[in-house]
Amino acid sequence: MRQTPILQPVSGRPVRVLFVCLGNICRSPSAEGVFRHLVSEAGQDEAFEIDSAGIIGHHEGELPDGRMRAHAARRGYDLTSRSRPIRYEDFFHFDYIIGMDESNRERLLEKAPTAELAEKVSLLTDWAPDAAKDHVPDPYYGGAEGFEHVLDLLEHCLPQLQRQIHP
């Protein structure tokens, strides 16, 4: 059973959201790009600070996977962020740290400096209990359908996240 994420009170500044996957080249930069698009379409650019990171730093400095960028571009999303690993400071800076799958969530909880800061960690699908899956699967080793499936899940979950954390 999914737990409802703990909502953090935020006032006087943008809501800070960090999306996290393993390498920060497929799922989390896609979540960042899709969420930026939704926020921009709603005229809420100043209300949110959005970023993405990876559990590992293997792809640090790289653009998102070219296949993911191509699939996202066909839907009107621009994925231009550069991969980076999650940092200790991120737990203090961001209000919401959102993993793409259970392994990401577990690793984030292990990295959280305190139990209080660990409360910022959730799964993206926690925000959309009616999602088709309980996680966002990694499309890296699959074909085109995996990238499309990730985008379908993001387009389903992220509007619900936006509504729930809108300042």
- What is the overall shape? globular
Q: Order of helices and strands, N to C? A: EHEHHEHHEH
Q: What fraction of residues sit in β-strands?
A: 5-15%
CATH topology: Rossmann fold
Task: Give me the secondary-structure category.
Answer: alpha/beta
DSSP summary: helix tally: 6
Helix fraction by DSSP (H/I, runs of at least 4):
25-40%
Could you name the CATH class? Alpha Beta
Task: Output the strand order for the largest sheet.
Answer: 2-1-3-4
Number of strands: 4
Major β-sheet profile = 4 strands, parallel
Query: What is the assigned CATH homologous superfamily?
Result: Response regulator
Could you give the distance between the termini? 27 Å
Number of domains: 1
Any idea what the radius of gyration is? 14 Å
Unreliable sequence segments: none
Structural notes for this entry:
The protein has 167 residues and is α/β, with parallel strands linked by helices. It is built from 6 helices and 4 strands; from the N terminus they run E-H-E-H-H-E-H-H-E-H. The chain has a 4-stranded parallel β-sheet with strand order 2-1-3-4. The longest helix has 22 residues, at 144-165. The mean pLDDT is 93. It is globular and about 40 Å long. Helix 1 (27-41) links the parallel strand 1 and strand 2. The chain has helices spanning 27-41, 66-74, 90-93, 102-111, 115-118, 144-165, and strands spanning 15-21, 48-54, 96-99, 121-123. Helices cover 38% and strands 13% of the residues. The two termini are 27 Å apart. The chain has one domain: Rossmann fold (3-Layer(aba) Sandwich), CATH 3.40.50.
